[in-house]
Amino acid sequence: MEKVGEIWREGRRVGKEDPRRIVHAFKVGLALAFVSSFYYYQPLYDNFGVNAMWAVMTVVVVFEFSVGATLGKGINRAVATLVAGGLGVGAHHLASLSGPTIEPILLAIFVFVQAALSTFVRFFPRVKARYDYGILIFILTFSLISVSGFREDEILDLAHKRLSTVIMGGVSCVLISIFICPVWAGQDLHSLLAFNFDTLSHFLQEFGEEYFEATDDGDVKEVEKRRRNLQRYKIVLNSKSNEEALANFAKWEPRHGQFRFRHPWKQYLAVAALLRQCAYRIDALNSYINSDFQIPTDVKKKLEEPLRRMSSESGKSMKEASISLKKMRKSSSYDIHVDHVLNSQSACKDLTTLLKSGILNDVEPLHMIALTTTVSLLIDIVNLTEKVSESVHELASAARFKNKKKSTVSSEKSDSVSTVRAMPIKSQDDHVVTILCDDDMSHTVDQSRGESSVDSCHHVAIEIDDDDSVHEKHEDGEMHEHTSCVSCGQTNASDVLDSDNKRTSYN
């Protein structure tokens, strides 16, 4: 009874980890029940006889967890059976023409040559990744048919029935796999990559608190729980084989959702490789948190601000990449992603300035070595974050992620077309500033003061006429640079003139 209880608990754990496993088990049972009808339904049994067993065997070996894996194995088995059957019948026919004495010698030569060549081809990396199972079935089927002792007409009938039952079993697996609670390998790879981004982001955002704060204080259970959560990055270190398998299966899958048939799965692997490189640096960084040799807090504090910024901004960049992947959108998330990368690089420059100032001159050598190693690892992570940013952008372009729709101001509020009035204002630097605004705005203008009060957020473009300046014309016909208006309220032209930016737009 104790073993039964352990099995029950293990079954609940496995099912709880991924409920799709339970559904998959029922799908396999349904497929086997369907193809076993070849035995129980007399007309089908009369046509296929004992060869109907091949349909059952096909379901057992072909039906995999994901659609891509099932489809890949099914196509491999069907094509290999067809090609090997044809070559096997041909080899048997050629050997039979040479007479009973030479026939076994020729058949042995044929089997040796095809088995040796096929086995050698299985070592090719690209072939092993996608066609290994097909070549294995090819060797088996060719050998069975070519050396069989049946007459030629019986061999043709055997090959026909075997191929038919294999196709029936494979088609049953594929149809059930696609139309009943499908599990897409491409979707799993996409979700896995986003999860890895989240995992690394969590560590980087929590690193500052863990490294600079006294983690031994407070509830011991809470401290241990927080540290266990930080250890989740190790999943990324061991995800290579899973990612490559999912990418291989995804190549077989038909179009589903936003994933096309020729989706850029290789780019997913490129991004995943960069994430693993980042995870290796994080693993080394984590060793300094749990090391027996701890740097004094007052020494750490000297570089706390730039180190915290580097880690936090890199973590935020990872988080934005995860959001971009999950939503499959690229415009705004990518821009924010780049901003975090720039912020982390700015923190690197600040850190370099601090180190050049000699702030660590009075630090003991061992403490300095440990601290500079931490700094070096964080700088590597920042550089890798930039590469990850570029790689995610390439993935978004290749995968045709949707652009986030930009909100419109006047067209959504009113169906009427508003006219634009231009009001030139002279600044103190002898620049001419032209304020473009809608006629239907509720505002008051005082040209002598150069102020324009607006009751709500409207589109105001400021154009500066300068002999040496170069203006860029946007799609809406205005020459300006976009910034965001965060809150609604008054917009004063004089305030804008006092700023350093010569070309600004408020939305």
Distance between the termini: 71 Å
Low-confidence stretches: 406-507
- Report the β-strand fraction as a percent range: 5-15%
What's the total count of β strands? 6
Calculate the mean pLDDT score and round it: 76
Radius of gyration: 34 Å
Widest sheet: strand ordering:
1-2-5-6
| Structural class by sheet pairing and helices | mainly alpha
Please give the oligomerization state of what you see.
Answer: single chain
Q: Enumerate how many helices there are, as a single number.
A: 20
Q: What sort of overall outline do the alpha carbons produce when their principal axes are compared?
A: elongated
Give the biggest beta sheet.
4 strands, antiparallel
Order of helices and strands: HHHHHHHHHHHHHHHHHHHEEEEEHE
Estimated helix fraction: 55-70%
Written description of the protein model:
The chain is mainly alpha-helical and 507 residues long. The N and C termini lie far apart (71 Å). The radius of gyration is 34 Å and the shape is elongated. The chain has helices at 2-17, 20-35, 37-40, 42-48, 53-62, 67-97, 103-121, 125-146, 152-179, 185-212, 220-230, 234-237, 240-250, 265-289, 297-301, 304-327, 331-356, 365-398, 410-413, 493-497, and strands at residues 420-426, 432-438, 443-446, 451-454, 460-465, 505-506. It has a four-stranded antiparallel beta sheet, with no helix packed on it. A two-stranded antiparallel sheet has the order 3-4. It has 20 helices and six strands. Helices cover 65% and strands 6% of the residues.
